[in-house]
Amino acid sequence: MRKMLMVLALMLPVALMAQTAVYDTVSIHDIQFVPDTASAESSPLLGDTVVVRGIAVSKVKEIWAGATRWAFLITDGVGGPWSGLEIIQHDTTGDNFNTGMGFVLQGDEYYFTGVVEEFQNDTQLAILLNAPEHYPVLLNEGVALPAPDTVTTGDLGSNAAGEQWEHVNVFIRDAIVLNNSAPSNTCLINDGSGDVSIDDWYSVMFDSISGGLYSYPPNNSLINVKGYVRGRNNNYTVNPRYTTWIEELTSPPNFSNVDFSPKLPASNRPVNVNATVTDRNGTVVSVTLWYSVDYGAYSSIPMTTSDSVYTASIPPQPDQSFVRFYLEAVDNDTHTSQAPGDTSIIQYFYSVHDGPISIKDVQFTPYGDGNSGLIGESVVVSGTVMTD
To answer: Does the bond joining 315 to the residue before it have cis omega, within 30 degrees of 0?
Structure first.
């Protein structure tokens, strides 16, 4: 197949004549550029069938697009804003398998033919199916890929700012890890200019995190990270191809397996808190539990340890009290970390109840994630059935 693609490259004038007779040949910039990102994000060529020239920057099937889809990214070779694009094949089953896309190699330059689409504010080119005359046309082999563009987290913090970097390889320097266990295998970081998430779009990252082979750096770590930008659900994420694309500059203590019980205590019950705390490049010096009752001042309790598992108990509180708490650790390099990572956004919490549990007790949360404080608990509630 590689030889066939090379033959197609030698036949380029004929192939292009057949293609451009039907479809316009455009650049990645033509597809991606939006003059006013504050008011519109969709490609100006949305819905058009076009031919585009680009260098494959990753292997086919290296990014997740679904069980029966193939996807990879291309670059114009120059880099900078508006220089990247996603190529996607929506169906790889049956006769649709035979599109030539499975033989595209990283670093090779091709002409691709497809339809310009938008998915979750991500621009992509859906290649034509059952159309052998529109196989990718090989132009050059082993082309050097552009260096990643240095950006800030704030450059990706809004649709208006981030659109130009869609599918471009970027580099973020000196960012702080705010939450290394955010939903859907993401990691929230900030270099002082705004929040952005690292995500596991690439299969190596997904497999490493999901399989327990890799975890994001501890909260409060200072890191450098590079990766390809993806538009997802009105946000932009940075997606490293490999775990080595995340560089830890400092490594504070790491929290895992944080838990407490009971989660709905009576007024005569203390609440026992435990967490596993480790340090990748040193030793943990201290772990402290900080708690606040009814939004009052915080009190501290030193946590004791046995084999990296730290424990402490919050004293009994009056009926109907609302308690928030977080954990703080310090290592031998005086690096500190917290759990949760950003306590201005979320903390651990519980309410004290001597009476029956209400539906409100189950539903209530003061934080934007919407999660109940009783997740995993067995409760008994009463209410009126509103539907069959």
So the answer is: no
Q: What angle do CA 118, 184, 370 make, to 5 degrees?
A: 100
Reading phi first (left if > 0) and then psi (alpha if -120 to 50, else beta), residue 38 is in alpha
pLDDT over threshold 70, residue 4: no
* Confidence band for 10, pLDDT divided at 50, 70 and 90: very low
126 phi/psi in degrees, rounded to 5: -90, 115
pTM above 0.85, yes or no: no
Q: Which helix (H) or strand (E) holds 14?
A: helix 12-20
Total length of the chain: 388
Over the Cα atoms of the chain, what is R_g?
A: 26
Cα dihedral 351/357/359/360 (nearest 10) = -30
The helix or strand, by DSSP H or E, that contains position 359, with its residue range, turns out to be: helix 359-363
Q: What is the pLDDT of residue 135?
A: 86
- What is the rounded distance in angstroms from the CA atom of residue 236 to the CA atom of residue 229? 6
φ and ψ at 379, to 5 degrees?
-135, 160
Q: Is the bond preceding 340 in cis, omega lying within 30 degrees of 0?
A: yes
Could you tell me whether strands 195-198 and 169-182 are parallel, antiparallel, or unpaired per DSSP bridges?
A: unpaired
Are 76 and 28 spatial neighbours (Cβ–Cβ below 8 Å)? yes
DSSP symbols for 173-237: EEEEEEEEEETTTEEEEESSS-EEEE---BHHHHHHHHTTS--PPPTT-EEEEEEEEEEETTEEE
- Name the helix (H) or strand (E) containing 32: helix 28-32
The stretch 196-203 carries a mean pLDDT of: 95
The four Cα atoms 39, 44, 46, 47 give a dihedral, to 10 degrees, of 140
| Nearest CA among 216, 205, 229, 140 for reference residue 179 | 216
Tens digits of per-residue pLDDT, 300-334? 999 999 889 999 999 999 999 999 999 999 999 89
For the chain, percent helix, then strand, then coil, each to nearest 5?
A: 15, 40, 45
